[in-house]
Amino acid sequence: MAVDVRVLKEAASGERRVAATPETVKKLLAAGARVHVQPGAGQSAGFPDQAYLDAGAQIDDALEQGELVLCVQTPPPAVIARLRQGATLVGMLHPQAEPERSSALQSRQLQTFPLERLPRTTRAQAMDVLSSQAGMAGYKATLIAAQLAPRFFPMLTTAAGTIRPSKVLIVGAGVAGLQAVATAKRLGAQVEGFDVRPETREQIESLGGKFLDLGVSAAGEGGYARQLTDDERAEQQRRLAEHLKGVDVVVCTAAVPGRPAPKIITATMVDGMRPGSVIVDLAAETGGNCEATRPGETVETGGVIVAGPLDLASMGAVHASEMYARNVYNFVALFLKDGALQFDWNDELLAKTVWPARPAGGEIPPV
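That's the proton-translocating NAD(P)(+) transhydrogenase sequence above. Prediction below.
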């Protein structure tokens, strides 16, 4: 009997992505699954129901039969309550972010794979939803900055004289930050990238940006930054505040997994920037890198525009969904074999991603 796969229609406000596209539906079918898609699941991402039907999926709202359920964000409790007891749920779930969410997942005894927990190894790159979605977010944040800025990004020679290029600073050089560097450079700006991890210098420079060295290093494990000491933070902020006085546009992208976004740009720094400057805070969803950021709003303080856009990856729903769906399929392929779900708990990608955590050498305990 083929595994019953259900693709959910996202319910979160502003969410336009979908967890499976017609392309990945065909791959799931080839792996021996039966695929059912909720009506309208892909509509906002540019994939109408007919495209799924043409790919071989069925369109229906019968969630109760799904053995494997695919989503982007955690379904609301009312939807979780409809899922089959003991089903496998795959998505960006953040199960411990809210007690109600955790309780709902546990009450249905769902075996969940929160893809944000996926080990960030070379083998996992094709499944890395954080990277694929951050790339779109960095791109969109830079376009928003260009739109808000009251100046050109590129240098222009006009009959009215030469216009110098905008000076753009990208804070954070993860996937989102590097995409922001590349996008700002393509738009013709004079681009700098700042990150407390010194190993990012080469990556920033390879994209045409200049590495902003403030003399503070916070190189940590796994490619992430460690927490700065109080003295290190004070010195970093002093030097950064001085530098920001000559910057036209700042795009903030710094994040620490599982924690609120680090506050890098203080209100005092914002006050010291020139009127007409712009800050776009991609980290707004986790509190923001700038103290003046208001998530979901664009405000002006002392002549400086500060934007805290949400759902940036969802703004590019077509390509974001295509990348996300491929990530999800590549992960599911680890345990979808010959039309059946077969979990190899010796595979660290499964063992370290599953929630609740699985004790070494044992079965997943009932919840």
